[in-house]
Amino acid sequence: RLFSGCDTFVSIIDDTETGKADVVSLEQIKPQFPDHTFDFINLSHLTHDEFLDDIGSLPDNTIVFELDAFQDAEGNVYTIDDVCRLLSEHCPRPVFRVSTGGVGNGALCSGFLDFEMFGRVAGAMVIDLLNGAKPSEIPLATGNSTEYMFDYQQLKRFGIKDTQLPENSI
User: Fold this and answer.
1) Could you give the 3-state DSSP secondary structure of residue 64?
2) pLDDT classification of 34: cutoffs 50, 70, 90
3) Count of CB atoms within 10 A of residue 20's CB?
4) How would you label 84-108 residue by residue, b for 16+ Cβ within 10 Å and e otherwise?
5) What is the pLDDT of residues 77-134, one digit of tens each?
6) E strand or H helix at 84, and its extent?
7) How many other CB atoms sit within 10 Å of the CB of residue 45?
8) How far apart are alpha carbons 99 and 25 in whole angstroms?
9) Predicted pLDDT of residue 144
10) Which of 11, 75, 119, 137 sits between 20 and 30 A of 56, alpha carbons compared?
11) Is residue 33 within 8 Å of residue 5, measured between CB atoms?
12) By C-alpha distance, which of 89, 100, 82 is closest to 43?
């Protein structure tokens, strides 16, 4: 919604098991976006300079998802923040993370799970068990606890107002 003119999703991945799983997950959601193109930049297949060339030449209709990219073809190892910084410095397009990390280092947005909330729920269940409740009496914890954190500098860079963000964004 923030970039309605974008019809291409480019995901930054590598050849790790996690990177391969990312590709499978994206293949599963493709039908939800029939008018969009899904492309991948696999860091494991590129030198550092080739990676910078690829991300620097992405067209204006592109949104970038930094998923899992930790090692290039030359053996250079990168953290999430390293890759997000490179993307911010060399890629003209907005960068999103679908999990923790990157905000403050070049990612426009990061989605993450509230592990403190999960801990509170689990702790309450343990207390119920210690107080004599049977496991079958404790309801299954469900619900979506994904939070979204945005980087103010990146919001300014791409001309996005905080009023355009999802409710309860940080």
Assistant:
1) strand
2) very high
3) 13
4) bbbbbebbebbbbbbeebbbebbbb
5) 999 999 999 999 999 999 999 887 888 889 999 887 777 777 888 898 999 999 999 9
6) helix 80-90
7) 14
8) 14
9) 63
10) 75
11) no
12) 82
